[in-house]
Amino acid sequence: MRIELEIKIPVASLEGLESSLSILGAKLLSDEEQVDVYFQHPCRDLAFTDEALRVRRVNGAVWLTYKGPKIGTAYKVRREEEVMVSSFESIISLLQLLGFREVAVLKKRRMVYEVERLRVYLDHVEGLGSFVEVEALTTEDQERTMLEAKLRELAERLNLPLEKATTKSYLELYLEKGGVG
Predict the structure, then answer these.
(1) In whole angstroms, what is the distance from residue 76 CA to residue 148 CA?
(2) Other beta carbons within 10 Å of 43
(3) CB contact at 8 A, 65 and 81
(4) Is the pLDDT of residue 75 over 90?
(5) From CA 98, how far away is CA 67, in angstroms rounded?
(6) Fold of 2-176
(7) Mean per-residue pLDDT over the chain, rounded
(8) Is residue 37 classed as helix, strand or coil in its secondary structure?
(9) Active-site positions?
(10) Distance CA 30, CA 164 (A)
(11) What is the dihedral of CA 91, 176, 113, 69, to 10 degrees?
(12) DSSP letter at 117?
């Protein structure tokens, strides 16, 4: 089981963050255009159970991702299972044949950095704005407290407004803003 820990902070602009990351020794891993298609289960309300099923296309690669309910902390912590699939269109068609319903399509530009074994994502999401995510992945539940402290420390070093942090997913933010669901 993989556990994702994340701080997500809306920001007015991503400008200046690249140079701040560079000063901290961050390495740019990729600059991506992502398309995320979210699905509703045919027999249970994933919004009610706080789960998500997503197909993501990034520069030709495709992943099917399940995100479990958030585990109650100040940060977004949840189980995540992900598999690479060969075809964006085929996996979407398969899910629809099984009764899954498309809920939303979100598009974003994401710059991915690595610093001190943490990932930093500079995201611009169409219709939602700009965000910074600081993330860690682990398979060890015992590492959670230590990793949460590292996430907070890095966010502070980047001068991010922690008081604006949200545990809401982009899908939740999109639906709150009036996106179709």
Answers:
(1) 10
(2) 6
(3) yes
(4) no
(5) 19
(6) Hypothetical Protein Pfu-838710-001 (2.40.320)
(7) 92
(8) strand
(9) 38
(10) 26
(11) -70
(12) T
Look at 8-12, 19-23, 74-78, 90-94 and tell me which has the smallest mean pLDDT.
74-78
96: Cβ contacts below 8 Å, ≥ 6 apart: 102
12-70 confidence digits (pLDDT tens): 999 999 999 999 999 999 999 999 999 999 999 998 999 999 999 998 899 999 999 98
- Judging by DSSP bridges, how do beta strands 118-125 and 129-138 pair with one another? antiparallel
Q: Which two tokens stand for residue 137?
A: 């992945």
Please give the span between the terminal C-alpha atoms of the chain, in angstroms, as a whole number.
Answer: 29
Residue 119 and residue 170: Cα distance in Å, rounded? Answer: 17
Amino acid at 124: H
Q: Are strands 52-58 and 118-125 parallel, antiparallel or unpaired?
A: unpaired
At residue 100 the predicted structure's pLDDT band, cuts being 50, 70 and 90, is very high
